[in-house]
C-alpha cells in the first residue's frame, strides 16, 4: 500500500463521493476510481458500497480508515521531525493527557518551553492512561501525562508534584448533597458512574471495602462532561477527580477517607527522539528539579 493511495482513500471515505473527492485531490474521477479498485484488489476485500450518488464504507473499509489515518499521521509526524532546522528548534511535540489537575502544571511547562522556542507547536490528545499508552507504543504520541495507578515499566518518567483528589459528583437534590464528604457507607445501595480503567476500579473497590458488594456500577465512561449529564438525569453518582469546573446543579464531595492519585509524565525508554522532543525531555527534567529544590 502506498501512502499516496491511502490519502486518496481517506478523502474518498470522508467525502462519500468520488467526484467531489477527485476534485479535492486534483485528479480525474477515473484515476481515483481506478486507484481505489486497485486498493481493494490488493487487500482482497470490498472497501465501499457504491450507489449512484454515494460511496459508503463497508466494515472492512471502516477498519482500514482507522489504520490508514494512523499510518498517514505517523508519516506526517516523521516528515515534520526531519524538516526541523538544526539551528533553531521547531516542529511538533505530541502529548496525551487525561482531564487532570496536573494538566495545569504541564501547561506551565509548555508555556515556559514555548517562550524559549516559539516555533515549536504542541498537539494535545485527550484520553485515559490506557489509550494514551497505546498511542505512545504506536509512535503517534511522543509523551503522556498518566494518572496512577498505571504500569510504566516500559517508560522513563517524571512524577509531577500534583495530587489528584477523588470525590463523588452528586445532584443537589441527592440527600448526600448536604454532606461535606462521602464515605463508603453513603454509597451503599446507590448506582455509580465510574471510569473504565480496571486499575482505578480496583483502587476504588479497596476504598469501598465491605460496601463494594452493596453498590452497582450502572455506567462506565471516560469523558467527565458526558458523565455529568447522566448525573443530572438521576442515573447515578459519578466517582471522579476534582477539576476546576463548576457544574450547575451538581456538587463535588471529596471521598472520606481521602483517596488521591499521583500523575506521571512518561516517554518510551530507548526511543530515538527528534532534537525538539529530546530538548523538551531535558527541559521537563530541569524544570521539575528546579521546583523540587534539587540541583
What topology emerges from the helices and strands here?
Layout: H1 3-15, H2 18-25, H3 29-43, E1 48-50, E2 55-57, H4 59-82, E3 91-97, H5 102-116, E4 120-126, H6 129-138, E5 143-147, E6 155-159, E7 164-171, E8 191-194, H7 198-208, E9 216-220, H8 224-232, E10 237-241, E11 250-254, E12 260-261, E13 263-268, H9 275-292
Parallel strand pairs: 3-4, 3-5, 8-9, 8-10
Antiparallel strand pairs: 1-2, 5-13, 6-13, 7-10, 7-11, 7-12
Helix pairs in contact: 1-2, 1-4, 2-3
Describe this structure in words.
The chain is of the alpha/beta class and 295 residues long. It is 42% helix and 22% strand. It contains 9 helices and 13 strands. It is globular. The protein starts with a helix and ends with a helix. The mean pLDDT is 91.
Structural class: alpha/beta
- What is the number of domains? 3
How many whole angstroms does the radius of gyration measure?
A: 24 Å
**Overall pLDDT score:** 91
- Please estimate the helix content: 40-55%
Q: Main β-sheet: number of strands, strand sense, barrel status?
A: 6 strands, mixed
Quote the beta fraction. 15-25%
Number of strands: 13
CATH hierarchy, class of the largest domain: Alpha Beta
* CATH topology label of the largest domain: D-Maltodextrin-Binding Protein, domain 2
The poorly predicted ranges are none
CATH homologous superfamily (4th level) name of the largest domain: Periplasmic binding protein-like II
The total count of helices amounts to 9
Q: Tell me, what's the shape?
A: globular
Q: Give the distance, in angstroms, between the N- and C-terminal Cα atoms.
A: 51 Å
CATH architecture of the largest domain: 3-Layer(aba) Sandwich
- The helix-strand sequence is HHHEEHEHEHEEEEHEHEEEEH
Amino acid at each position: 500500500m502506498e501512502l499516496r493511495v491511502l490519502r486518496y482513500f481517506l478523502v474518498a471515505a470522508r467525502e462519500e463521493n468520488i467526484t467531489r473527492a477527485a476534485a479535492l485531490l486534483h485528479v480525474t474521477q477515473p484515476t481515483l476510481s481506478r486507484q481505489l479498485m486497485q486498493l481493494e484488489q490488493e487487500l482482497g476485500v470490498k472497501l465501499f458500497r457504491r450507489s449512484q450518488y454515494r460511496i459508503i464504507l463497508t466494515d472492512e473499509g471502516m477498519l482500514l480508515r482507522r489504520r490508514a489515518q494512523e499510518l498517514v499521521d505517523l508519516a506526517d509526524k516523521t516528515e515534520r521531525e526531519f524538516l526541523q532546522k538544526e539551528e533553531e528548534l521547531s516542529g511538533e511535540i505530541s502529548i496525551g493527557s487525561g482531564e487532570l489537575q496536573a494538566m495545569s502544571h504541564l501547561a506551565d511547562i509548555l508555556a515556559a518551553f514555548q517562550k524559549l522556542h516559539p516555533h515549536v507547536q504542541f498537539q494535545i490528545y485527550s484520553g485515559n492512561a490506557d489509550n494514551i499508552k497505546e498511542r505512545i507504543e504506536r509512535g503517534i504520541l511522543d509523551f503522556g501525562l498518566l494518572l496512577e495507578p498505571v504500569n510504566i515499566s516500559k517508560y522513563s518518567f517524571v512524577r509531577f508534584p500534583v495530587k489528584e483528589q477523588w470525590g463523588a459528583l452528586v445532584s443537589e437534590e441527592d440527600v448526600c448533597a448536604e454532606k461535606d464528604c462521602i464515605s463508603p457507607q453513603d454509597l451503599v445501595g446507590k448506582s455509580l458512574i465510574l471510569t473504565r480503567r480496571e486499575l482505578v476500579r480496583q483502587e476504588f473497590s479497596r476504598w469501598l471495602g465491605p460496601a463494594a458488594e452493596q453498590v452497582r456500577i450502572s455506567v462506565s465512561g471516560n469523558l467527565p462532561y458526558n458523565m455529568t449529564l447522566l448525573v443530572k438525569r438521576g442515573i447515578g453518582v459519578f466517582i471522579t477527580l476534582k477539576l476546576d469546573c463548576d457544574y450547575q446543579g451538581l456538587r463535588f464531595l471529596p471521598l472520606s477517607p481521602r483517596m488521591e492519585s499521583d500523575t506521571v509524565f512518561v516517554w518510551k525508554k530507548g526511543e530515538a527522539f527528534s532534537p525538539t522532543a529530546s530538548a523538551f525531555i531535558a527541559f521537563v527534567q530541569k524544570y521539575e528539579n528546579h521546583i523540587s529544590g534539587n540541583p
